[in-house]
DNA sequence: CCGTTTATCGTCACTTTGACGAGTTCTGGT
DNA sequence: ACCAGAACTCGTCAAAGTGACGATAAACGG
């Protein structure tokens, strides 16, 4: 704010501040988002992102973490601010400015009980992103389609140059499991051998636990933990979607 | 928002929504930000980022553009959302959620007249980022030091893989001028020959205008315009700050 | 025992990078 | 007029990284 303006909020119509959360995980080899079916107008019976009002004494991130826990019981997952959406008219009732957060959790997520009247469920994001797929309600309430798309774009982009993919993996994971995260989120096939060379060759990116696992069939694989290096330089290049 | 909650904003203490702007440019071979000297409490006489309240019928981006024009007269520059800052207590008067924007303008910026009581001026960002430099007021009002740092970080990062650097250049520019943007923003020296090869070799990144210029001394250089390719793949790698 | 699956190691050609040499064309000083 | 300096642009070369793919290893289920 510049210095001379005085504060008189009553001069302005009130603005509500909410958080909305794009919570992504991987279910059955698909990237999926948690969606809530709305029980009230507007957009009754449509799907929407989970979220809620920011309470007077909590930070924005705390509000997002709280809503997430209320909705899913999950805690401590990766959570980052995505962007803020505040167009007038995005909510027909009043001016609402919504701070969107992106959250990622590993594979087998809690069964999301519809503890209250609203029901939450995981939906593959593809149906909301590909306008060519006429499945399910292809539109979300409010501007949540846009927010969901921005969240997926952010996640896809950050896989290239950060260790974000490990947020989709359990604490200990194999190179193959990590590669499958990339393949599912990007929707491409990666060469297992080159991927292995890249991630094991980047110093500090993966820490071997010394253990092996045979889960997943095939030859047992080393288990790794996330290492201290959280930036990938040079990045893992995402192959451009095969143009035919 | 999840579906069952009802809207009753009067239940909550009001939250003010503002925009703050990190406006960067290059002055005298330094990266500089526009700062306002505050004329009122709190933080009277401190420096702060320009900004102001979001009006009822404008988008967040429009509010940022309006404030920017009121403050500098500048229009049409690069403007992107940076992040939202809403910790309780960041403003001692009331709960304020501020959506920060990052704006970049080319070299010779308008003289910023202190048209109203507040005075605006360009300050090199180094003094606010390097805590080791005890020049000028090394702290900004509110959490604006943090916002400024985030803005500079964002600009630095995006130079690597986007054509953002051209936002610091006039419409037509030489490869040398573009390189100097990188050198100043990153605070490193780049090899002129390798840089030239990289940016002219990336198809669609620069469009030759066919003209030459001799401004800047030395052999005349080709003038380029920004090309259609706005993503640099592979990116221009930022040399790590020379470790001694 | 044998095919299948997955992990991991290697090889090879190609591209990109970083370091640097060298020629070109302007300006400003003497 | 000449020269030093600055800046642009083209080249060369070794090192590193990448993509494509062959080959072996170690588990599994029949």
UniProtKB/TrEMBL annotation, chains A, B:
Residues 224-244 are annotated as: Disordered. Keywords: Hydrolase. One of its GO terms (molecular function) is hydrolase activity. CDD domains: NUDIX_NadM_like. Residues 14-146 form the Nudix hydrolase domain. It comes from the Bacteria. PANTHER family: ADP-RIBOSE PYROPHOSPHATASE, SLR1690 PROTEIN. This is NUDIX domain-containing protein.
